[in-house]
Design a protein that fits this description.
- By secondary structure, the chain is mostly helical.
- The protein has helices spanning 2-16, 23-39, 42-68, 76-93, 99-118, 126-146, 173-196, 199-209, 211-216, 221-248, 258-271, 276-301, 307-328, 332-350; strands spanning 159-160, 165-166, 169-170, 250-251.
- 76% of the residues lie in helices and 2% in strands.
- It has a two-stranded antiparallel sheet with strand order 1-4. Strands 2-3 form a two-stranded antiparallel sheet.
- The longest helix has 28 residues, at 221-248.
- It is globular, with a radius of gyration of 20 Å.
- The chain starts with a helix and ends with a helix.
């Protein structure tokens, strides 16, 4: 409930300032579509923005399930893999199928898998549900490795992603793939925002806060839980398409391992549960942090700070950050951001 209060206070602050709530997102989108493509370099797109967009969308999907509906999942990477491989096979085996249709169908495949592995939520809760969702992670990764049909009988299991064509337009190069990923993320984030603001989103929150009370007031608990798994898996599956098609440009099971699932979980914990904005703030930290840590380590320690030390340091610092956020600020970066913005607004009004 504190996360909801944070969202409401931010809305009241914007209203009090006399600015419409949609102005800030519109300005961000305008900058992302116009300014960034004209000024950004290849490194910005390839190393920062593309993984940021894919992980942000995956965070949005998991936040719907965990932050809003209260269903813990540790199998997000499995749904990303399902979406990526499904889109690849739809594009490969169905001649003339538009890329947009392949992406939508891949999301539906991931949603179907999410419903199957969401069935234990009808009986299990909390830690037991989180452990049961690991079955999705291990099963999907095993199936993609075991059956070479999914990777078009590639000996290595690694396949090249198809080129991005939509309505005759080719999204080539770093800028083109960035615009493709940005468009998908903007559309799905808008729909996710509308969803959590609707009666369905309120049903998710009611089940998260008190499942028994939700059942008493007439909310179909079992149906709503499965719907949360389906919607979350759909969004995460599409995020897998962006990760494979736009960012890595390859599709392989190893890219969607358990570490990826934990990474997405860390994103929503650090960014803020039950907040769409929190997924983007958490993804920004997760993407930028290793790059900043690498630069700082090389500056301080030189050649001693190799990839092994970087990986170990990253895990240690991220673990410490998660513990600090859980203890000091459970609502994550989004709560800190709103607090700073509120103080700046008060200071501006007083001056």
């Amino acid at each position: 409930m504190s996360a909801i209060a944070t969202e409401l206070s931010a809305a009241e602050l914007t209203k009090g300032a006399g600015l419409p709530k949609w102005l800030a997102p519109l300005l961000i989108i305008a900058i992302a579509y116009i300014v960034v493509p004209l000024t950004g370099g290849s490194y910005l797109f390839e190393a920062i923005l593309l993984p940021f967009l894919a992980l942000s969308l995956a965070g949005v999907g998991l936040n719907i399930l965990t932050g809003y509906a209260g269903q813990v999942s540790l199998g997000s990477a499995a749904f990303m893999a399902a979406g990526a491989f499904a889109a690849y096979n739809f594009n490969l085996r169905v001649q003339g199928l538009p890329l947009v249709a392949s992406i939508i169908l891949s999301g539906l495949v991931a949603a179907a898998i999410g419903i199957v592995f969401g069935l234990p939520s009808l009986r299990l809760r909390g830690f037991y549900l989180a452990v049961s969702t690991l079955a999705a992670q291990f099963f999907v990764q095993w199936a993609l490795t075991k059956f070479s049909w999914f990777s078009n009988d590639s000996a290595s299991g690694v396949i090249d992603a198809p080129k991005l064509f939509i309505a005759g337009l080719a999204f080539d190069g770093a800028v083109g793939r960035y615009l493709f990923a940005l468009t998908v993320v903007v559309v799905l984030t808008f729909l996710a925002h509308r969803l959590v603001s609707s009666q369905t989103g309120r049903n998710f929150i009611a089940i998260r806060d008190n499942e028994t009370a939700a059942r008493i007031i007439g909310i179909p608990v079992l149906k709503t839980k499965l719907l949360a798994f389906a919607i979350s898996s759909f969004i995460i599956g599409v995020a897998g398409v962006i990760w494979a098609f736009a960012y890595l440009r390859t599709v392989e099971p190893a890219g969607f391992d358990l570490d990826r699932s934990f990474q997405i979980l860390f994103i929503i914990i650090i960014g803020g549960l039950a907040s769409i904005r929190g997924a983007f703030l958490g993804a920004a930290l997760i993407v930028v942090f290793p790059l900043a840590l690498s630069r700082l380590g090389n500056f301080l320690l030189g050649d001693v700070f190799d990839s092994g030390v970087l990986d170990m340091s990253q895990r240690i610092v991220l673990g410490a950050l998660i513990i600090l956020f859980l203890i000091l600020e459970p609502d994550g970066l989004v709560a800190l951001w709103d607090r700073v913005r509120r103080r700046l607004s008060l200071a501006w009004q007083s001056s």
